[in-house]
Design brief:
Length: about 375
């Protein structure tokens, strides 16, 4: 057997990089194929504004000339400036159950990182902190929700054998009976009043640019200083929100304002994975129409983010957002979150207010490169 790791430098190798997961997960009923055109857009350094300050290198490991594993490596200058440590981040990791293939793949990535003065390699980040993060480490065999990583159990072994250790564990939270639970509480969820200068409204498609800037402003303030968080530029936010209307509805995004200025955001999305699963990685007019029709049948709401500007985190804004969340959740059967750090007590308690409990766990790994 022979192994060779090659950088993605042409269309043929990019095709091998993109198609490898389709071979690995063939026959897995829970796997959701990514839309290939969207993955290509995300990894296009000329189109994705995130890479204005970050480098991207893609690798494919070939076993006897057949693709066996893949990896993306990102070095973000902004991260080094904010966190005062030269780190690289790996993502889009996929591999056959072959320890040698993954080992030689990471060996090559580590050689590259050391040549750039990198001190530590962390991941998975696909490709950054506001994308899919982590490696699934429990509840294998269950269908992933939108924005949840999904991988085989043996990936943990491959990373451990390559010398990586767990540096953080993230969790999602979930309530599979939210509608009945809210009904049993017999809570009156009425319109939220304008009081003491506070008001709450839905996202406005007619003023999309203005409201995207509201979301960006609130998120950048609320999460400043958090784990691996870097502020998003206007261009990055617009890029990531290109398909916002496909994954959510205007009424599922709430903006709290105080005296006319945005101070908090409740951003929910639909769990579109049941629809994406049927597309098998392909976009196009017919699949688009099927997708739009199918959205009406979706029964799971995902709380993508809850953000409150720091100056307002101990005010009545939290109660406004909680009431808004309950008002949205009553029309769904299930409500879940994207990843939360278990030690983030305010976020965990907020989810518990909706009857959510820990669901899946995802590990972030790291390896020091100084030795």
């Amino acid at each position: 057997m022979s192994y060779q790791v090659l950088p993605v430098t042409d269309a043929r190798r990019l095709k091998d990089f993109l198609r490898l997961p389709f071979a690995l997960y063939r026959g897995d009923p829970n796997w959701v194929a990514p839309i290939i055109s969207e993955v290509k857009r995300t990894l296009d350094v000329k189109r994705n504004p995130y890479f204005a300050q970050a480098s991207l290198d893609l690798y494919v490991c070939y076993k006897d000339q057949a693709p066996a594993a893949r990896l993306a490596v990102v070095i973000d200058k902004n991260h080094e400036q904010v966190f005062a440590r030269r780190a690289a981040f790996f993502g889009f990791f996929e591999s056959t159950n072959d320890r040698e293939a993954s080992k030689v793949l990471f060996d090559e990535a580590e050689r590259y990182c050391r040549s750039r003065g990198v001190e530590v390699l962390k991941g998975p980040f696909n490709p950054n902190h506001y994308s899919e993060i982590g490696l699934q480490i429990d509840r294998f065999g269950s269908a992933p929700a939108f924005f949840e990583p999904n991988n085989p159990p043996y990936y943990r072994v491959l990373l451990a054998k390559a010398g990586f250790r767990v540096s953080a564990v993230l969790q999602t939270m979930r309530n599979d009976d939210i509608r009945n639970e809210l009904a049993a509480r017999d809570e009156t969820i009425d319109a939220l009043p304008d009081r003491n200068g506070y008001s709450i409204r839905s996202f406005s498609p007619a003023d999309k640019e203005r409201d995207l800037e509201c979301l960006r402003e609130v998120n950048n303030d609320a999460f400043a200083g958090n784990w691996h968080f870097l502020p998003l530029s206007k261009e990055e936010y617009a890029f990531s929100a290109k398909y916002l209307s496909l994954v959510t509805r205007p009424d599922l995004i709430k903006i709290v304002e105080h005296q006319g200025r945005p101070v908090a955001v409740l951003h929910c999305v639909l769990d579109i994975n049941p629809l994406l699963r049927g597309l098998k990685g392909q976009a196009g007019p017919i699949n688009y129409l099927r997708f739009r029709r199918g959205r009406r049948r979706l029964k799971t709401l995902i709380i993508y983010t809850v953000a409150i500007k720091k100056a307002y985190q101990h005010t009545r804004v939290f109660s406004l957002l909680l009431k808004a969340a309950r008002g949205l959740a009553k029309d769904f059967e299930t409500v879940s979150t994207t990843w939360i750090l278990p030690e983030n007590v305010p976020s965990v308690r907020a989810a518990e207010c909706l009857g959510m409990r820990p669901d899946k766990h995802f590990a972030v790994y790291e390896k020091g490169l100084n030795s």
